[in-house]
Amino acid sequence: MTTDDALSRFVREALSNGLKREQIEDALSSAGWERSQIRDALKSFAEVEFPIPVPRPRSHVSARDAFVYLLLYTTLYISAFNLGSLLFQFIELAFPAATDPDGHALIARENIRWAVASIVIAFPVFLYMSRRVNQAVARDPVRRDSGVRKWLTYLTLFVAAGILIGDLIALVHSLLSGELTIRFVLKVLTIGLIAGTIFWYYLRDVRSESGEL
Q1: Is 101 helix (H, G, I), strand (E, B) or coil?
Q2: Domain span at 193
Q3: Structural domains of the chain, count
C-alpha cells in the first residue's frame, strides 16, 4: 500500500465514522501530513449526504487535454516573447546606441513587423483557448486536477520566476558596474513587467485552487 493509499483509506474510514472534515484535517496535520496532501485526500470524497463516503471522479490525462494545454501555453509563450521583442525595438529606436550600424533602423522595422504578426496570430488564439479552458473547468471542476495543466502551470511559474531573478541580477550588475542607462533600464522594466504579470496571474490561480488566496 502506498502512502497516498494509506491516507485515502484513513480519510474514508474517518468520514465513515462521522468525523467532520475539520477534525480529520487537524488530526492529520498534527501527525505531520502536509496540508496539500490532506486537502487532496479530502477533496477526493464528495460532500454529499450519504451513509458512506462518496468518491469524486478523478481527472485523467487524455490526448485532447494535452493538445489543449500545450496550445494554450505555447501561444502564451509566443505572445509574451514577441511583446517583449516589440517593446525592445521601440526602445532601440527611441534610444539608439552610438555603436549601432546605419542599417539598424531597417532591421528594427523588420523585427517589429515580425513581432506584430506573431502577436496578431498567437494572442487571439491564447485568449480563445483560455476562455474555452475556463468554461470547461467551470462546468467540470475535476478538470482542474489535470496533470498536464498542473505541470505546465508550474513550469510557467518556474520560467517566469527564473526570468525575474535573472532580470534583477542584470539590473544590479549594471548598477554596480556604473553602466546603467535609460535604454537598459527600460528593457529591464519591460522584461520584469511581462514576466511578473505572468508569474502573478498563474500564482494567483494556483493559490485560489489550493484555498490559500
Answers
A1: coil
A2: 63-210
A3: 2
